[in-house]
Amino acid sequence: MKIAVAWVDxxxxxxxxxxxxxxxxxxxxxxxxxxxxDPGEGDGYDSAIPLGVLDEDMExxxxxxxxxxxxxxxxxxxxxxxxxxxxxxxxxxxLGIHVDTMSKYLCDAQRKIxxxxxxxxxxxLS
Length: 126
Fold this sequence. Notes:
The chain is mainly α. It has five helices and no strands. Helix 2 packs across helix 5 and helix 3 packs across helix 4. It is globular.
């Protein structure tokens, strides 16, 4: 799958985990792992918020995702929240679209999100 904006892809990957935790009753990322260890140790079970990312960052991404047109929002949610190791083809089938269309929609969504979350920063620099 083509990734238009690499930093947005990384942020959306974090947002996917964060939003699922929020929806399941947790508040963002936990401060520690229930299996022991400190946040950020890098094992696959650590659910602490990644270094350099704040809950406010995730809330900004969440707002940007909610403002996307419906189809772009559905693609982002499917790819970043519900993929669970599915192939691009399987994701596209679950959305009822062709894999090339899904890739285009995802690139469009990433660009819109990048623009949306970057705008407030530009206003603060003026």
